[in-house]
Amino acid sequence: MRFDVVSIFPEYLAPLDLSLIGKARTDGLLELNVHDLRTYTKDRHRTVDDTPYGGGAGMVMKPEPWAQALTEIAETSPASVPERKPTLIVPSPAGEVFTQKLAYELSEEVHLVFACGRYEGIDERVLEWAGEQFTVRAVSLGDYVLNGGEVAVLAMVEAIGRLVPGVVGNPESLIEESHSDGLLEYPVYTKPSSWREREVPEVLLSGNHGKIAKFRREHQLRRTATRRPDLIDALDVSSFSKTERNI
Ligand SMILES: Nc1cc(-c2cccs2)n[nH]1
Fold first, then answer.
1. What is the pLDDT of residue 101?
2. pLDDT in tens, 52-74
3. Which segments of the chain have a pLDDT < 70?
4. Domain spanning 178-246 has what CATH number?
5. Residue nearest to atom 2 of ligand 1 (CA)
6. Among 9, 145, 147, which is best to mutate for testing ligand 1, by the most ligand atoms less than 8 A from CB?
7. Whose CA is nearest to atom 8 of ligand 1?
8. How far apart are the CA of 121 and the centre of ligand 1, in A?
9. Is 149 touching ligand 1 by the criterion CB < 6 Å?
10. Which helix (H) or strand (E) element contains residue 219?
11. What pTM, to 2 d.p., does this model score?
12. Could you say which architecture CATH assigns to the domain 2-161?
């Protein structure tokens, strides 16, 4: 999979050179190109913003540098073929919420392009214009406001990139994660079995895999019911045992 990111702070994306995503890039499983939006300006001051029509505080990102950058990326896209377009993701507090389900959906794409807005946002006409060459999606990390899209892109590239086959060493570790089955993950423990007078739950030392699975499932349900009751409502409980339904 290929990622392209456009930002006025390209150095913000440097953490994607590290760890799992960095290794996947070295191994050729992922490609990541970061573009400085100012490269696509034409004036001496490399201007990317201006005052908002209609007044109001702050500045708005000018459309033309974005059009120049996105056109160059689309022209080199492996997804720019008949019946297919690269996906342009615009992080925004006004977007659809990014979830594990959306991460899986996007991990199937060939080419994802991210536009990191700053200031009060990008001129809306850019998102309309980009619809010709891209499938455009405004995506929110959650109901809070960041100063720019870069932090959201770091999170999304990691969440999506790790789902690409081969990126995570043991694909089994993707199965029992939070949200993979609609529930939060169960609590985990390691050595020592006794630590500061706190013991690891006995069942986990028993070697009885049936009991261990039951313990873990019950703790997933309990943790989800306590911390994210909203997820419980969305569950299909038809496959739940009587005990599980009463947790
Ligand atoms: N979820 C979310 C996204 C954002 C921003 C994206 C770009 C500027 S601010 N804030 N919160």
1. 95
2. 999 999 999 999 999 999 999 99
3. none
4. 1.10.1270.20
5. 93
6. 145
7. 148
8. 9
9. yes
10. helix 209-227
11. 0.94
12. 3-Layer(aba) Sandwich (3.40)
